[in-house]
Amino acid sequence: MSTATLDAPADSDAITPFTVTFIIRRFDPDVDEEPRWQDFDVEMFATDRVLDALHKIKWEQDGSLTFRRSCAHGICGSDAMRINGRNRLACKTLIKDLDISKPIYVEAIKGLPLEKDLIVDMEPFFASYREVQPFLQAKTEPEPGKERVQSVAQRAIFDDTTKCILCAACTSSCPVFWTDGQYFGPAAIVNAHRFIFDSRDDEAKVRLDILNDKEGVWRCRTTFNCTEACPRGIEVTKAISEVKQAIMRGKP
Amino acid sequence: MPATTAGTPTSPQTAKKQKPGGTLYRGNEGMWSWVLHRITGVAIFFFLLVHILDTALVRVSPEAYNAVIGTYQTPIMGLGEVALVGAIAFHAFNGLRIILVDFWAWATRHQKLLFWIVIALWVVTMLGFVPRHLINVFSH
Amino acid sequence: MSVIEAPRTPRPATARRTNWEKWGWIYMRVSGVVLVVLIFGHLFVNLMVGDGVKAIDFGFVGGKWASPFWQWWDVLMLWLALIHGSNGMRTLVNDYTKPGTAQKVLKGALFVVAAALIILGTLVVFTFEPCPANAPLELLPSFCSAN
Amino acid sequence: MTAETTHAETKVVDGVHYHQYDIVIVGAGGAGMRAAIEAAPGAKTAVISKLYPTRSHTGAAQGGMAAALANVEEDSWEWHTFDTIKGGDYLVDQDAAEILAKEAIDAVIDLENMGLPFNRTPEGKIDQRRFGGHTRDHGKAPVRRACYAADRTGHMILQTLFQNCVKLGVEFYNEYYALDLVMNDGKPAGVVAYELATGEIHVFQAKAVIFATGGFGKIFKTTSNAHTLTGDGVGIVWRKGLPLEDMEFFQFHPTGLAGLGILLTEGARGEGAILRNASGERFMERYAPTIKDLAPRDIVARCMVQEVAEGRGAGPHKDYVLLDCTHLGAEVLETKLPDITEFARTYLGVDPVVEPVPVMPTAHYAMGGIPTNNDAEVLSDNQTVVPGLYAAGECACVSVHGSNRLGTNSLLDINVFGKRAGNNAVEYVQTAEFTPLPDDPAAFVRGLIADMHDSDGTERVAVLRKELQDEMDKNAQVFRTDESLEHVTGVIAGLRERYKNVAVQDKGKRFNTDLLEAIELGFLLDLAEVVVYSARNRKESRGGHMRDDFPKRDDENYMKHTMAYLSGDAHSSDAADHIRLDWKPVVITRYQPMERKY
Ligand SMILES: Cc1cc2nc3c(=O)[nH]c(=O)nc-3n(C[C@H](O)[C@H](O)[C@H](O)COP(=O)(O)OP(=O)(O)OC[C@H]3O[C@@H](n4cnc5c(N)ncnc54)[C@H](O)[C@@H]3O)c2cc1C
Ligand code: HEM
Ligand code: SF4
Ligand code: F3S
Ligand code: FES
Predict the structure, then answer these.
(1) What is residue D372's DSSP assignment?
(2) Tell me, which fold does domain B28-138 have in CATH?
């Protein structure tokens, strides 16, 4: 999700704030039966992020608005949410890239159990991550005190999938995942890919086997929502295709 | 030793109510092409079931078959056939697009372009088919 | 480093059934490619050539199935399309229902319907009698003329 | 799929959940998880983290991790030791620096063997690159010592450590906030944590406790640190009456995105970027005629602030300077500095290819923290060890960074001392007994939460926090004078008073982040007070601590570590009433202090 517009805002834009309406899907498990929508008007600058808006609301209007965030610049993966109907990181979505003549809709990511406001239970997501054995398993010992040798080209094959920050933007954008949440989901496959194609790893077969499953890669219907949602620009669908082909070949 | 223990403990199995919903997800070409593929696939499937049964009437008697097939020739069914062919054409072309996307890295990167090519091919096909078919249906 | 047993020892072999998902996936693609030819050919001959849909009647069908070429064409199309379609429907069932009885019933129904129609269709094509006795001659293919 | 983890609870009393582990690690960043990888196989271990482990701020680090592997050119760990000591303006404990540099090599190899995808040399070995302050043969020339994985080294370290924790089945308690350390008889008995999801209180009884809670950059407004880096661990230890070391030393990185503080790596200037003021002047020429923009971090930061103070800042409010990369060309920016290019584009809408980027110094790294010895054992005074209590990572002060940390030495620190903490804790718990818990170990935390929750005060957390951060930026940032520090001391005292009257709006139990921000503010206020108090007392300029009124380093009087203790009435408004300062000698083994010239 690189920034769509690169034209710098005219100086006057940058310094005059304007009012933006946010419509946020709230849910308080203690009182609400069903989620509800709530409007907030916030004074914003063009270069502010949606995360700034959420903070302004929380800090100035309604302290009970709840969301996760940490790094505030797109590297920790805390704040994936649905902004105007698409999964994005709140801290990487600038006001100027949204159409502010209309209200901005903000809601939790889809397909994971809603806990409160913009917070969902991430445990099912991490469970399928853990399921694909996302760690190096090498059968040979390296020379004591030395690194395993890997060529620049071998390293490049899986570079893309090492960028994942486990934000779940992809998995929760996947229409197949929404249907019953049983599908491993793109993020787990991305993290399997990262090891399947690592020349130092010897257990690719096991992971391919895990993903060659009813809930594995074959459930992907190439809808590309995941690729478009990934804030790290990972070519998720391509990685999934590579895993499918590795399964058919029987080796990475 | 607990089997897997790298997760947050959640309060013991409180059956969490899944609350789907919210706004419609605003996917792009990839998602909408899949929606159409699915809808057309299902539509064709049900048509096929019927179509096999009606064709099977040839084993019953020529009269029976002709009676049923006659309904295919009414103007209303004629329009239905346009829809059917439209569905098949889309499903077929998009099916080929999916296959390309699955096996060819270039196509994975350019799936949106391919989607628009599918649409273009579909339009061309329909332009070739619809006038001719409607003339057949409405003439005589 | 690993004093405790690695928690993710490879899955027990029993969990590894023959994998239908993979073959299903491949089948969808292979059959898809073949179906493009078969279905477009079918549609073209039936709807575009001559008077199109208006020309279809018992005689038309009989004329076609007199040739083994079209017999095989249609039977192949029947098999491929039905299996392709039912497998596609199975995907939908997997997506929109939770594992359980309902799912089993639906999948069972799909299987039964597909199998029945494949048998029926195949029988029809191969046991088809283009010139049944007692039928009005004008309904039959032209070659039926003299009994 | 995976069986849901059920953590064993020993009992539930009055709604408080009790757990028992040999080792409890607080914090799941680089240091915490490195410790866990050593601890979990050897002892029953739990890791408590207020964030999902992969959300920790270790993931933000870009540049690299130093180790004298000599993969691309001649290097030795002795040179690395020297650079570290000199970089820290000689306030470094030299025995510790030696350990750091020596064990660096194993630390990097460990990570590689665990799966970290380092960039490679053409021969397939770990590639290395240059970084500020790392030199060959005691300052002769820059050396390639930083092992890196693209510009995502921290991300890769965090992911790799997490992956190995998954492999080992480490027990994590994610989104549990540790709020208190239970001490009994001078030893840790356990940790009390607040479960964010439910609002329940958990007591973790433990033989050994390792703190790895990271930094506290959020006492400042402009910082490269995450919102969650509020120094809770340091604050918890402080409130127990244990000392904090060298708190006045905070590193300000010269090039943070103006107003945001997001870091633009030093590598930009390494590639030739130039700092300019409003009139386009290359002002560093005036301050450092020979090395100009590549002067050390502390000096550059100071010059930038001076330009702005004297009215030569750029922008509508004249409050920043410009980092000009335009002459580098699109090619260099896209290939060598892709991340900062993207940050500038995304967050300021400024394209570095065609426009200079607004920058200002950003609070980056806490050199000070919980004092430990070289075995990562926490000290209760200059040498007494608290048995069973460990600290590692940014929250600890060994001190390997002295008054100014070298780039790439912190990722190293978390690995070397994280590992040591884990190993030593395992060894300790083999023979140690559980320290009995007091009758109601959760009393303090329950009170804290109840007070906060039920307060009908009128002050708002965000208002107080903003004032603290603004004032810290104005008065205790790059430039400090007795006057500015005195002023901010007063401000903090006022804020601490008002904090007693703070209220939260969210009255629910589940995911009450409003309540948490209020508690975090308490830690921020405590730590800011210690930072300022320690800074006032150090009447010299050294490393990250720049006193305008005492611009010279003063080895005669201040060649020693500051040790701050909480004593007396913790709630009194006058800091002098409850902070006691003491000194600790610097360990000097091989290198005598010299003037720091580059
Ligand atoms: C932008 C940036 C770039 C950097 N680049 C480099 C570089 O290139 N090279 C280098 O060497 N160093 C770099 N550093 C410094 C280095 O990254 C950090 O100092 C280091 O990662 C700190 O690691 P840590 O494990 O101590 O803490 P963190 O990674 O911050 O982890 C802290 C952990 O403690 C937990 N925690 C905190 N409070 C509580 C609580 N109350 N209860 C429970 N858990 C708690 C958190 O959840 C988190 O898991 C950089 C720093 C920043 C900010
Ligand atoms: C004309 C040639 C055809 C081609 C090229 C084709 C291709 C495909 C492909 C590639 C898929 C798999 C989609 C995926 O995995 O994401 C598919 C799915 C499907 N097809 Fe076809 N198909 C054709 C004809 C048919 C026919 C005749 C039917 C009906 C009987 C049909 C019904 C379906 C159904 C129901 C699905 C499942 C849709 C889904 O899962 O979303 N298809 N088709
Ligand atoms: S693949 Fe991308 S979207 Fe998915 S979890 Fe990783 S970083 Fe997030
Ligand atoms: S969104 Fe889902 S369907 Fe496949 S391409 Fe991505 S995993
Ligand atoms: S807050 Fe870290 S990714 Fe947005």
Answers:
(1) B
(2) 3 helical TM bundles of succinate and fumarate reductases (1.20.1300)
